[in-house]
Amino acid sequence: MPVPPSLIRLRSAAFWGLSILVALASWRFLLLGVELSMPFVAYHAQVRPLEFYAHIGLAPVALALMPFQVWTGLRQHRPQLHRWIGRIYGLAILLAGLGGLQMAFGTTAGPVAGLGFGLLAIAWLGSTGRGIWLAWQGRIAEHRAWMIRSAALTFAAVTLRLYLPLLFVSLGETAGYSLVAWACWLPNLAVAEWVLRRNRSLLSAA
């Protein structure tokens, strides 16, 4: 059954809106300070400040740029701009992902949360790096597939913020944080794989 155009527009608006709004909200520490704006992870600012600020400062850059990178119109009509945005997107993920990986190793939230966020950082770095390498090789269809996976993992910043209040209320902070470390990205990646399998003919087009 074809998806109604109105639903497609609604999903697109939600995708763009949530990505941009969460990216902007993530920089609230610039106005409010880390202790007030993100007290649950503020200890990282004292223990590993370089990694912490790389993550919280540059992950929103990747999130804000991500919708532009999956925008077909930009890719088709402004390919040079698409490439330059892609370079900034990739660099932001490299630095934010490495910072996030170090934070996952040093988290006080326990091994379950640490492993979940650590694997997210590895998958984020790996999928983005693979996608960029494929673009350099001119393997555009494979590049698109891997960048869809990268986008799904970048969107974990949104799903984490949607799930976390509900999980904190229902399970408590410790259990809720451990669960969201996995729930914020594994379903996203599963949806991306489902989309890729349904649209193999689109991805095969250069």
Explain the layout of strands and helices.
Layout: H1 5-26, H2 29-32, H3 34-37, H4 43-47, H5 49-69, H6 72-77, H7 79-105, H8 111-136, H9 140-154, H10 156-171, H11 173-183, H12 186-198, H13 200-203
Helix pairs in contact: 1-5, 5-7, 7-8, 8-9, 8-11, 9-12, 10-11
Summarize the structure in short:
Helix content is 84%, strand content 0%. It has one domain (5-203). The chain has 206 residues and is an all-alpha fold.
Structure explained in plain terms:
With 206 residues, this protein is mainly alpha-helical. It has one domain (5-203). The chain is 84% helix and 0% strand. The protein is built from 13 helices and no strands. Helix 9 runs antiparallel to helix 12 and helix 10 (156-171) packs antiparallel against helix 11 (173-183). The radius of gyration is 17 Å and the shape is globular. The two termini are 27 Å apart.
Which short descriptors sum up this protein?
206 residues, mainly alpha, 13 helices, 84% helix, globular
What is the chain-wise order of helices and strands? HHHHHHHHHHHHH
Quaternary structure state of the chains depicted: single chain
> How many distinct helices?
13
- The coarse silhouette is globular
- Taking all Cα atoms into account, the compactness measure Rg is 17 Å
In total, how many beta strands?
0
Could you give a short account of the major beta sheet?
none
Please indicate the count of domains.
1
Mean pLDDT: 92
- Beta-strand content estimate: under 5%
